[in-house]
Amino acid sequence: MTPVTRQEVLGLYRKIFRIAKKWQSASGQIEETIKEKEYIINEAQTLFRKNKNVTDPKLIKQCIDECEARIEIGLHYNIPYPRPIHLPPMGLAHKQGRMLRHQEKLRKISKPIYLKSHDEVS
Length: 122
What we know:
Layout lengths: L2 H20 L7 H21 L6 H21 L20 H13 L7 H4 L1
Helix pairs in contact: 1-2, 1-3
């Protein structure tokens, strides 16, 4: 990791904790605010620890882009959780074979950048 990339990653990490410190839930309830703050901190720690050994510059850039996207979406919609996506169900595919693999590939490709690591952690 280059020194510039390292500074960018550490800056994002600090930015997330500053956001969590000032976070106010949309409902305004104290219990909800505390729960959302804890979620932001736990999610950041989990994802940053999971990706701390990544050395590929393209993968590092993808992780940084995902982090920035999740920050912007969270601030814009005032929700810390990833926004759900609506993809076509896989019920039409056969249980095995080419069609199932093709649909799985399409679902993986069509997943937005801010959800790339969500299924891996949850």
